[in-house]
Amino acid sequence: CISCESPHTDDAAFCRECGEARVANKRIDEAFSLYTGTRKLFRKTDLIHFFLHARHIQQAVSKACEKTYRRLVIDIKALYDEVLESQCSEELSAFTQGLTPDSFQTFLTKVARMLGTSGGVLLAALFDEAGR
């Protein structure tokens, strides 16, 4: 589940933990490709466009926008580093220069929580921001 990171059963339409509608892996792969193009890794340089999209989503979710743009950037970079470190240590992966598609899903989950929204809403908003 993109909201709570719990595993889905194959026939489940909703997450058993949080109740959110299941997001197809295809949508997550599309979001990954939105930022990486044909590359296989989501690199730190790909965050530049992601920051702007996240800021617009934050403004839509919370009219108060308690975090400044600078604080949002710092927090997202910290989440990226945390997920990358986890990817490198857990998977003993050769991919140390960026997030794999599986780790990207974890990254999106953490960003959604930080923004105070669900993973499905975040994905839909990212596509809206990108004009897709």
Give a quick precis of the structure:
With 132 residues, this protein is mostly helical. It is built from 5 helices and no strands. The mean pLDDT is 83.
Name some characteristics of this structure.
mainly alpha; 5 helices; 132 residues
Report on the architecture of this protein:
The chain is mainly α and 132 residues long. Helices cover 58% and strands 0% of the residues. The protein is built from 5 helices and no strands. α2 crosses α5 (119-130) and α4 packs across α5. It is globular, with a radius of gyration of 14 Å. The two termini are 22 Å apart.
Morphology: globular
**N to C succession of SSEs:** HHHHH
Radius of gyration from the CA trace?
A: 14 Å
Give the class from helix and strand content and strand pairing: mainly alpha
| Biggest sheet overview | none
| SS element count, helices | 5
Overall pLDDT confidence:
83
Which residues form runs of ≥5 with pLDDT under 50?
none
The number of E-state strands comes to: 0
DSSP helix fraction: 55-70%
- Taking the alpha carbons of the first and last residues, their distance comes to 22 Å
Strand content: under 5%
Annotate the secondary structure layout.
Layout lengths: L24 H12 L10 H15 L7 H22 L10 H15 L3 H12 L2
